[in-house]
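Researcher: Let's walk through a ligand-bound prediction step by step. First, I give you the protein sequence. Second, the SMILES string for zinc ion. Third, you return the three-dimensional complex as structure tokens. Ready?
Model: Ready.
Researcher: Here are steps one and two:
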Amino acid sequence: MKLPVTTPIMLWSGSTYVISRLKEVRREITRNCKAIPLIKAEQLTERYRERAIIGGYRANYSCAQVVLSLFHFTNETVNIWTHLIPTIYFAWKFAWLSSTLPLFSEAYMFPLACYTVTAILYPLASCMAHAFSCTSPMATYVCFFLDYGALALYSWGAALVYYAYTFPEAAFNTWYASLFLPIAAVNCISAMMMACFSRFVQNQSLSQTLRLLGFILPFIWDSIPLIYRLLTCDAGSDSCESFPFHVRQFIYVSIALFFYASHIPEIFAPGCFDFIGHSHNLLHLFGIIGTHEQIQGAMIDMSVRRGPLKDIGWIVSPAWSYLVTPGLLVTIIVLTLIATQLVDHLDPFYSSAGPCCFCSPQPTNGFIKLHDRLPVPCLPSDQSKYNNAVINGMVKNGIVSNSNNKNGIVSDSNNKDGIVCNFHSKDGIVGNSNTRNGVVSNSNSKHFCIANCNLTNGIINNSITSNPEHKNGYINQYEKKMQ
Ligand SMILES: [Zn+2]
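Model: Step three, the predicted complex:
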């Protein structure tokens, strides 16, 4: 039998095929990368930036882009996967538990069932929030409200499971025991409200502190009985079997909180940890390992103390599981809806237009409504050149300036304590510019109208205008046109 001979022609055609396939793969990757554009922190309003994270941001993505971005490196990819994988694992664990234990038929098991569900919901809500928050400013709010709600509900689940299986015998039938669950329920709602409210606080440090405080309070309250047992337990007894898990859980959660509060390591090298290894990645990682330890510890307590607790008659009323837990879930959903309605009123920086301020955009023939209400120093200025564009710039304490527009409209620029100036428009309209304590000036236009400029304590200068309203200011060298 004759063996096949590898000729140079065969080698050539083979390598050509491989190279063409590689080129195809490269083209596909390039096409996908273009489909998920990443932007820098400076292109975003301050509210959407993370401290010391410079790049890898996503903004105004479609759902398809979000899904695609799961498989590319953005500054949220690790955040998403570090909670998506545990969600799947915890869901599998829950399915396994429900097939091996009477989770839904025995009252003693109800707290474990409730707790496990909350332990699935919080990483699920978190990974959804990190994935879809970039689709719109309102999505950012809704996603993170639900994220906070799920975390608050998890704090309730932990309280319930501790009360059912971990509570120290010394505290049974005391005023502390009778108050433990009602206060945990109040903590759950207050944590949710504090976290939601924190999103309306403009000072980033204060906002983070409020959020942290909101969740630390229930954590401390829930942990008091456990700490008491850790300190008083007889080391050799069965009831101490779960303690290594509980101790490790405290350690992991403390590490997670440390990274969340300190922004280490990215504050030491801004930009170096944008895609992997930043503090929020570490928060997720250590937090979820802590939850895993807590589940293990709770299951051991449930199993080891089953007999002694039943002998004493310590069984949590099922109403806490099948009435209060769903009740808290509904309350959280209602609070999310209420908070969503308040966004436009409570967040002065909110713009339904988009999270991006576009400091130096180059759009043409488009409808530009992404000049968010910007804090200084992110200014849409100098290089904004539009053709046939509609611009809705909203700025607080900043400058909307030097926007050159041809055949279009520069309008609805709301500015507080700043300057709306130097709009050069040809055949268009500069209109509805509202400023307080600022200047609307030097707007040069041909065949156009500057209309409805409302000004308090400022100057409208060198402008052709109609219907100006001013108070305590100057309208200087303008020609009033009747419409
Ligand atoms: Zn997160």
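Researcher: And what stands out?
Model: Residues 79, 126, 130, 280, 284 surround zinc ion (CB under 6 Å). The mean pLDDT is 75.
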